[in-house]
Predict the structure.
Amino acid sequence: MTRPRHFLVDDDLTPAELEHVLDDAARRKKDRFADTPLNGGSVALVFEKPSTRTRLSFEVGVHELGGHPIVIDAGTTQLGRGETLEDTAMVMSRYCSAIVIRTFGQDRIERLAAASSVPVVNALTDYAHPCQAIADLQTIRERRGGTSGLTLTYVGDGNNVAHSLLLAGVAAGMRVRVAAPRGYEPIDQVVRRANQIGEETGGAAVVMTDPLEAATGADVLYTDVWASMGQEEEAESKHQLFRGYQLDQRLVDAAHDDVVVLHCLPAHRGEEIAAEVIDGPHSAVWDQAENRLHAQKALLAFLLERS
């Protein structure tokens, strides 16, 4: 039996494969019912963390691919009562064409994938948010005609979104700058891996502390909430520390005149992003949210074809 292709972190796709998925995402956006590779099969959508865009986009996407989405709140399954991830994966593999999971540690999705005989997709972990990054790249391609040679600046917490932007952005030939306070930088392992990928693509990963310097000349400005899910108790302390890292008009003015503003949502206007920026003329946030649907459909189709 062919080993399944999983998508657990961004570099599970080669740069060429990423380009293929992005091309297919654009095609599927033009014709949402172009083909139905699931052909009646089911996809398990497992959520151990709350979700809006991820759940909706995957549920709609599986339906449009000709499949049946099975949304599973992990708290209502035996996972919540101590069944192992390995046993769960082996059972789900007998029922479903693929497994999509939104969970906590990266180790959990790696264990699930190791025991699964069908593709497993990372719908968010504490380490990475790779499906979001593919939709981000699709949005940038729509607004700027491509990605190679562009500069993407991310300001804020060096979290899972920052990790995926570094890996996927560099794979798409971009210079990715992350401006974060000291102690909140992306992990060195991710930065090193991104720069390894950049040796092939011409992209590069740079970690900085000055958001204004990072925004200067940028083609894309990006931010995320300062306190991710599970970090709510840190929100007040982070609010003080990150105050200078708001994506505001000052950063927009420092970037290129046609800069594209992105945010993975949900957004806290007046905190990590100014209201006039997310609602302003440079914002592509709503296209970005829509593109989760098209990008994930293309990704699922790719994984199913190669499994």
